[in-house]
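pasting RNA methyltransferase, TrmA family for the record, 462 residues
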Amino acid sequence: MSKHTETTMEPGQRFPLTIKRFGIDGEGIGYFKRQVVFVPGLIPGEEAVVEVTNVRETYAEGKVVNLRKPSEHRVEPPCPVYEACGGCQLQHVSYERQLQAKKELLEQAFSRYTKIPPHKLVIHDTIGMDNPWHYRNKSQMQVGQTEDDTVIAGLYAADSHDLVDIDECIVQHPLTNEVNRELKRIISDLKLSIYDKERKKGLVRSLVVRTAFETDEWQLTLVISKKSFPKQDVFVARVKEAFPSVTSISLNVNPSDTPLVFGEQTKTIEGESSIRERLGELDYQLAPESFFQLNPAQTKVLYDIVKKMAGFKATDRVVDAYCGVGSIGIWAASEAGELRGMDITEAAVANARRNAAEAGIANAHYETGTAEDILMKWQKEGFTADSIIVDPPRSGLDRTLIETVGVLKPKQLIYVSCNPSTLAKNADELGKYGYRIKDVQPVDMFPQTSHVEAVTVMYRED
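structre below
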């Protein structure tokens, strides 16, 4: 342990703490004897007596014992399981302050991971929602069982394996909550066995429900541990009896001991294999395993920002990397000369091809594979991109892709990020290849949580 991190703090110790800023997971951060202390549930400016729960090498974790000076931005969380559930982190913070916090998280990330002077970095105010509730179009609920054999479904509490039963999630579409409540009853009535991770026995693992806001189509995917589902017909009949409007019912088989929800095999057992969602004038086909933004209302805002900030010209060749169902590229394609995309999920690529065709876009081409492999393949075939759109997972861009961008030298990179830390780290790496940030626009895609989406345009200095 380095000298500046040495501390005599130990679990159980109590002391007063003033919170200075938000952490990346929405916790309050303060300093005690120059040691960083993370305390969930606190807001910058608040003063509290805290108790140390864990001491790490470079920081400590604590919990609130007594809130001495509450923030003017503190509000009463409307969700009854907010403190137990790990899904939301900022329901105790006014929405106006949430938006400010998300801009601050971006500022902190760029300050920590890059050498860009703050006065040379333009980060705009966060664009929020008029109604920051019931905005999510997809839920992934883990299924469990209590000691008295009651079937429950919900999310794991933060940093634990304790499953919190959720009957009404106030950031989910209302239909999603209704479906999940009924599914618990159906699973219980049919006496379907619940998967036990410790014993690696049982059938039902997860319930995945996706609702299309504009078309009212919706999709149920039951994740099970085995290929056989003996009560499949009666299960489908019960779901259709309760919800005659269901568009698609699928089974996904995940036999592995993994934190991933989906396994590799998905089979439609009733209705259509995909559902249709509409954004503006464009329709998108969504298979169960296809990625699509979770907040349809803000997705239109986000994609309009991408289109405006990118400023595509009619001669531009644009690549939509990590394309999913092709949503971002298709939205912006009217401004480009040629659109190409790739994804590692075959079902998503199939959706992207169909979505582009139905949108009447003749200049779109999609392939299955990693972005770095496909980009190099296309270069050998004579195609090079003027602009590349990337919308990677929270882990950020693969290092190989960054190196590939450095080799191919596209004029512009439009980076849609859901993680300020990896965005800043990637921006610093791309800076070594001559890319500079034009500006950053945060968008609140996930109200009540600490997550922030940001559109960053980077251009290459020749």
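The chain has nine helices and 21 strands.
The longest helix spans residues 95-113.
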